[in-house]
Amino acid sequence: MNKYTLLFLFxxxxxxxxxxxxxxxxxxxxxxxxDRGFITxxxxxxxxxxxxxxxxxxxxxxxxxxxxxKKSWAKRDGKTVVNYAYSFPVKAKYxxxxxxxxxxxxxxxxxxxxxxxxxxYIRLQLVALHHYNKNEISSIVWGSYKTNIYNLFGExxxxxxxxxxxxxxxxxxxxxxxxxxxxxxxxxxxxxGEGYIIHTPDAKKYPLPNGLHEGxxxxxxxxGGKDWDFYCHPEIYYRGTRGFTAAYIDTNYxxxxxxxHCRNSQIADTAFQAGSPGYPGDRFRTWISYPEE
Length: 293
Known about the structure:
This protein has 293 residues and is mainly β. The chain is built from one helix and 24 strands.
């Protein structure tokens, strides 16, 4: 698989090893990665910040450094259907001399990820993926990187931001090439096309009215299924999107998570989606990505 690159903003400068985990630090943030390939800590180390030493990784919700999206085939009603599922790393080894992580997955796949630290961010790059079946690996997924920030999110680039005076902090990710795309792969994305996401940045200041709840999604053409209903909600808790999900909310652990992905360009893959889901009469269409030369 080709090399794909991601910038994890505000992370990494030096490295420290302690009890089967590695700590990376910049002037702004310190993270810890375990020997299973998961990020378990994101601490603000920016001196002078109102949230200095604040932990931004949600408790009991670690983030995989990189995941694989695998597909399998099954028979249903006499037809062959494709199922997609995430595969998370089970083992990690850091080679300090090469500044590389070796991640091992349940299926025997081994990913080599280069880490290029700077003073303000970490540059992650998939150098190689070994021992994998190219017909099963649909995409590689950076993250998802979970935060306990629940204020503002930027879904186009991938930012989680807390604007309160007591925190005043943001964490973001950014793809560095045209193949590294924001959000989760279309095959498993519940969000297709344009729509509204219901999220209030401040539940006390902007409480949700009856009939709306956090994480609720209205597809293109609005909550009423009419064109004129879609662009008629100026309320701050109606968040308009254009299909990007580089940042999104998780109502289960009450936080914002950040995700990028890159599909396997060696094979063709097919997904079915509607251009305007929820709109009366709109049929599902076939989306095909062809191998790239």
